[in-house]
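Consider a protein example.
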Amino acid sequence: MTRPQNLPAPPRAEQRPHSYEAHGVTIDDRWHWLRDQGYPDVSDPDVLDYLKAENAYFDAAMKPHEMLTEELFEEMKGRIKEDDSTVPLRNGAYTYRSAFLTGTQYRDWYRTPVLTEAEGPIEGGEEQLIYSENAEAEGKDYYRLGVFAVSRDGKLLATMVDDDGSERFKLIVRDLATGQDLETVTGIGIGSAVWTPDSKGIVFTEVNDQWRSYRARYHRIGDDPVNAVTLYEEKDDIAFSVGVDRATDDSVIFISTGNNSSNEVRIVPANDPLATPVLIRSRQPDLQYQADAAHGKLWILTNDGHVNFRLVSADPARPGAWCEEIAGSDRTYLRDITAHRDHLLLTSRVDGLDQLVLRDYASGDEERVPFAEASYSASFAGNPEYAPAAYRISYSSMVTPATVYDYHSAAKELVTLKVQEIPSGYDPSRYITERVSVTARDGARVPVSIVRLADSRLDRSGKLFLYGYGAYGIAIPPAFSTSRLSLVDRGFAYAVAHIRGGDDLGYQWFLDGKLAKRTNAFNDFVDAAKGLIDLGYAKPGRVAAQGGSAGGELMGAAVNQAGDLFGAVVADVPFVDVLATMLDDTLPLTPGEWTEWGNPIDDKAAFDLIRSYSPYDNVAAKPYPPMLITGGLHDPRVTYWEPAKWAARLRATKTDDNLLLLKINMGAGHGGKSGRWNALHEVAEAYSFVLTQVGE
């Protein structure tokens, strides 16, 4: 393990007495002061001085490895086509595409009019640049485009932009004929924005001071935005967040409210959003459903009858009277639906593998889109029109670059539109991908997807990079990545552990990694590392690990449990101060998260369980592997003090001299730096850290 020579002593955060009590237990928290009491304004000079000192230490520690970092960055950059463009996609009278130009950090957006002849539509007209993220981002330290929505008549553009990482978006309406902004509808938007079919109004959601999406509003273009009408405001449950969407057939607008485990949905006529919203079905604990509309019916996915969901239909006039169309299945996990004119598109997962299915409305016959590889990631992508000529699909595997298809149902044909170009070259025959299962300590079989050099040996002489997440029912797909090739080419097998807490093997797989079963996720990850070691991928100490956000919590729990397995750990924006955060219902993260982690305020059992695994609370006087921890000063999801406090406690407690680095992005939020090259450079930094710590 490499530690730079002449590295100054690391910062040591002052320990200040502080404690709190819950359920008769006193919790000592000597680094509580790192939470600026004026947050989200962070101006406490002591806090800022400490964060700056940590950043300076990070710079000093990484300086000897600058050449490696830059080598990795240029290598990874060389695999990315600088002047890359999406495949044009028709929406109304235009086709739209976005493109990166050489040397730019952000996308520019273009459209081309579609001319029509008697035989059908043809491409024609002159392409227009209608929005430049690069121009909008100029002079800003951070820029993120959250919404790009053109009105149905093609005349107006609605964008949502976050320019400081706080995830409070400005909703701006622009006249596409003149390029001039007409109005700022709100400065606290979030989520999506939905145009009415007449293009005269827009429905959107706003956040409150606690960063909770709490209401849906309607703004008529040209009116004073302060007079926007509230269509729905969540008042019953502070854990619920509000969202809006439109039916694919443009008949209704959906207003949803829910948390991680239950929800309810209301509908309003899309052409009359001020009508009284009609509730589809009222909220119940653990009841989830989503809806679309076509052919005068609502098509609804729900878990009311089976953990892996079933498909039902309903008359919009009686939306709560559900008629079963597809029964729930132990093997087939129904994940998403989109209702187009000719087919109901079903996204499912069978035995952990993505399935894309076209269902005929009249007969119920199903047609699965065929893919040749044994392991892959596939999804319906886009298809904004109700009656598209073909269905757009995204596809990749761990050895197959991202591919865009159009699927023509009548011909049962997949037409390749684009294969990800790798300018520096890519030879898939140099790599192999495999999917193995390891046995967790309770007997569960945990799948792991792996890519490695074809000539690598499974004799423990190699190195292993293990990635994990395991929360919120989010699966990590076996997809392609150009950046990870820089590790694989240097002797690492890159593995993704599909641990419980994700929904990789069905919804029950998710349920088996949350609440009272949360520690299954941590155990699965550690056991996956041990299982891969037993299979010969590496030996203890030559395993690197990475996870972010809830995956950062995973990293913290893993090093507390089995730090000796790992030669380097990268924890990005890690949710590690779980107990204190879940006990503080004033934080934006907290009430909506109780269904994922438990409510330690009211539930002593939840308090005891969270206290037993919370990474920050379980730092012990023992050796820890080299660690790189990151955070964002403006992060509203995992607040900056969580990684800061964790790093401070680790420094004061661990018994080794291994390198521990904390990097706080002072001008960014949960996703790190914005801009494709800035973000890629942070990947290069993380991989440089891993390579110098795990070594040969």
Observations:
- The chain has twelve helices and 38 strands.
